[in-house]
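User: Hey, my collaborator sent me this sequence without any context and asked if I could get a structure. I don't really work with proteins. Can you help?
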Amino acid sequence: MKEWLKSIFATEPQTKKDVIEMLHNAVLRKIIDNDCLPMLEALVHIDDLKALDVLIPRHQMDVLDINDSIENIIDKVIATGHSRFPVINGQISEILGIFHSKDLVQYYKDPKEFDLKDHLRKAYFVPELKHLDSLMYEMRLHHSHLVIVVDEFTNVVGLITLEMIIEQIIGDIEDEYDSVEGERRFTEIKKGYFRVKGFCKLTELSREFGIQFRDKTVETISGFIVKFLGRIPVNGEIIQISHYNIEIISADQRKINILLINKI
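Assistant: No problem. I've predicted the 3D structure and written it out in C-alpha cell form, which is a compact way to encode the shape of the chain:
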C-alpha cells in the first residue's frame, strides 16, 4: 500500500474527477473496499450541495407554538416521531428556539408544572446558500442537530437536521420511526420546481404534481432516468426529458439520490 500511495500522489490531482479516478483505482487494487466507494465519492462531492438543496421547506416543517399545552406537544411528538422541534410565537417567521422531546419525561407525574418557555434551546440560523461541508462542521461545533435555514432577507425557508446531511454521504438512515415520520420523497421548493428523491415512484409524481413519465419496466424516477440515459448521471448534470429539465443534485455510482425537476 505504501508504494501504491507514492505512485498515485506522484501526480497531484487537479480536479475532483482525478480524485474519483484514484479512488476507483484503489478499489481495483483491492486497497479500498468496493462498498466504501459510494461514501467516499459522496464525501468528495459534498461541498457541491448547499442547504437549499436538501432542506425541508417551511410549509412542511413540524413546529410547536410557545403557547401549546403539554398535551398538544405530546400528541405532536407521537404523531411525527421527531425528537426536536422549532418553537414559534404564532407564526413560523418568529422562531424562539428549539425544544427537545426528552424534556417531557421529567413531567410525566406532574404535567401541570411544565412550561415550554423553560426548555427552549438556542436556535441556529444559517443561509440557504451555505455549503453542506461547512454546515456539518458548524453543527458539530455547536452540538446542534437541527438548524433553521434563512434567505438573504432572513426569511425562514426551511430546516436541516444533521441526519439529513449524513444521509447525503451514507444514504438514507431508516429507524423505527420512519414509518411514522415518513420519508419526504418530493418537495415543491418553489412554484414549478420540485426536489425529488431518487426512489420516488413515477405514479407519485403523476398523482402529486401531474408530472407524466411513463414506463412499464421501471417504478422509480431514478430507474426511469438511468434507463433513458443508459447510464447513471453525474452530479450537476442537466437532462431534458419531454417538457422537463432535470438537474442531478446528488448521485453516486449506484443510483440517483436527489434531483430537481422543473417544467420548461
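In plain terms: Residues 78 and 180 are 9 Å apart (CA to CA). You can pass these C-alpha cells on to your collaborator as they are.
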